[in-house]
Design brief:
transmembrane helix, cell membrane, membrane, mainly alpha, MetI-like fold, 15 helices, 2 domains
């Protein structure tokens, strides 16, 4: 297992290196002075220009410049924002937690609703129930995320007035950041208004989280259904039924844990699509996350923000994809058997 983990760690480093090579090459093609693209500094003084030349080795060859670029980015120096003149790293860390919070809530909704529906679709003997669930998932998979987000905003936010359609929390609340995750920080907030603030934050996250959860929800339902139908025909399931075990016990103890393995694998494969959906959702609902920040940087031609946002999103996707693959191998007996047999 140690050798397997070492190979996956090497894969992460190799993929990340390719990403940095691509970003370094693209940076040189930006329609702006190379110094501005690297640092975000317009019209640098003679001292600043000398410092930039030394830090990025602009008077050296391409290989040396790439190594310097890699050193600067890995040290956390992503330059300063062209528009705000604030360090890009600080802006990135400020918006990253909001994106993680939204993604976590959306993922929880997809799993908590998708797995039971997938199990129900696989076990139900009624064709109407099966066809209804699969029709819902197919419809959800086919609906464009931007149309769904705007429709939910129109109906539940504007016409019915049940839920807010923008932002993360009412501006009247001043929550002291502790963990960076708003819902957790509110629970840690020592104030008599903490509960009302928590409810307000939940109301703000409902529409973007539901919109973002639709894609993984449909995938979870379909994969769970397919896996459960296959597993329920296995010999050990038939043996458990012959011993007189209840269907609930068979499903929860024997079938569902095994059905979750392909679900986990497919979640890893759809991280890229999930991230792109998240960017659209954040823009629609003015969610203060990485996606909205990155799109704003694109509109304003803030080249350092564009680089920082793309690097952050891509590295997170690479890391989580490899992490999910490792978890899949760890909990899947067949994968472990193949792994050890290879040694």
């Amino acid at each position: 297992m140690a050798r397997y983990l070492a190979r996956r760690l090497n894969l992460f480093f190799a993929t990340s290196l390719v990403l940095f090579v691509v970003m370094f090459s693209v940076t040189a093609k930006f329609p702006v002075d190379h110094t501005v693209a690297l640092t975000g500094i317009h019209a640098p003084t003679a001292e600043e220009q000398a410092s930039i030349n030394e830090a990025y080795r602009l008077d050296k060859g391409q290989v040396s410049q790439f190594i310097a670029y890699l050193e600067q980015r890995l040290s956390g120096n992503l330059g300063i924002s062209v528009t705000s003149q604030n360090p890009v790293f600080n802006e990135l860390t400020a918006v990253l937690s909001a994106s993680f919070e939204l993604a976590f809530v959306a993922g929880a909704i997809a799993l908590l609703l998708g797995i039971p529906l997938g199990v129900l679709a696989s076990l139900s003997k009624h064709k109407i129930t099966q066809h209804t669930i699969m029709a819902i998932t197919l419809t959800g998979y086919s609906i464009p995320v931007f149309w769904l987000g705007l429709s939910l905003s129109l109906w539940f936010g504007v016409r019915l007035g049940w839920l807010p359609i923008s932002g993360q929390i009412n501006l009247l609340y001043e929550i002291k950041p502790v963990t960076g995750f708003l819902l957790i920080d509110i629970l840690l907030w020592d104030s008599r208004y903490a509960w009302s603030a928590f409810v307000d934050a939940l109301q703000h996250i409902v529409l973007p989280a539901v919109t973002l959860a639709v894609l993984p929800f449909t995938v979870v339902v379909r994969i769970t259904r397919s896996a459960m139908m296959s597993i329920m025909e296995k010999t050990y399931i038939k043996a458990a039924e012959a011993r007189g075990l209840r269907t609930y016990t068979i499903v929860m103890r024997h079938a569902l844990p095994n059905a979750f393995i392909p679900v986990l694998k497919n979640l890893g494969l759809m991280l890229g699509a999930f991230a792109s959906y998240a960017i659209v959702v954040e823009v629609i609902f003015s969610w203060p996350g990485v996606g909205a920040w990155l799109v704003s940087g694109i509109y304003q031609r803030d080249y350092t923000v564009i680089q920082g946002g793309i690097l952050a999103v891509a590295l997170i996707i690479i890391f989580l994809s490899i992490l999910i693959e490792v978890l899949h191998t760890a909990i899947n007996p067949l994968s472990r058997k193949e792994l050890y047999a290879a040694h």
